[in-house]
C-alpha cells in the first residue's frame, strides 16, 4: 500500500515522530528508518545514542513550535510528509490530572492543527486502550472488547484521549482529505519487560485491569507503519494489542472466572487477546509478529 505525499510528485518519505525518544517512539523510529523513511524525532527528551533520526527539541504545547516542526527547521530539513504523534503524559497519576489533561489535549490539538496548516494529510497518533473502560471496575459490555461501543473514559487521562478522538472526527469533517488514525495501544512492553510475565500467574487479578493485554513495542511500530501506508481517509480508531494475553491460562477460562456476567461475543480460542485486533487486521493488514512466550 502507498499514500500520496503532501508534496506533489513525491512519495511519502519524511515522517515526524513526536516522543521518538520514548519507549514506543524508539521502536517506531527504528522500524520506520529500517523501512526507508527519513525520520525526524521531536521530543523534549534527548534521543538514545545512535538513533537513525534527526532530532530537535520541541514543546508541543506551543503551536508555533509545532507548526515550524511540521514545515521545516533551519539546518535540519524542509517539508514533512506525515506525522506520528506519540508524545503525552503516558498514564494517569504521573502528574496531577489537570496538568495531564492540559498537556495531552493541547499538544494533540496543536499536532492536528499544525498538520492541517502545513498541508500534511497523513497523521497517526497514540490514542489508548483506556478509552475502552479501563480498569474495568465497571465490566465491559462484552468480550472480546472492540471499537464498536462508545468510549468509556474512567480517568482524566482517558478522558483526554476521548477528547482527542472527538477532535479527530471534526478535523476530518473540516478536511475530507485528512487521515487521522488513532491507535488504541495496549500496555507497551519491551523484550526486557517479559521476564516479569511468568509471575503474573501468581495473581491473575493484578492484570485484569486491561483484560490481561499488552503490546510488544515492535508490533506497535508495525501498526504505525501500516496505518501510515493505508489508503484510509477520515478518522478511524483501532485497538492495537499483541495476539495473546500475559497469562498461560485460556482466555475463556479467565473471562468465566473474573467476568462471569459479561456476554461473550464470539468463541475465544486458546490464549488469544481479549482486546480485539480484528478491525486492525482487516483494514490495516496488521499482523503482530511477537509474543512474550518467545522471549521467556
Automatic annotation (TrEMBL):
InterPro entries: Epimerase_deHydtase, Lipid_A_modif_metabolic_enz, NAD(P)-bd_dom_sf, Smr_dom. Signal peptide: none annotated. It comes from the Bacteria. SUPFAM superfamilies: NAD(P)-binding Rossmann-fold domains. This is UDP-glucose 4-epimerase. Coiled coil: none annotated. Residues 1-59 form the Smr domain.
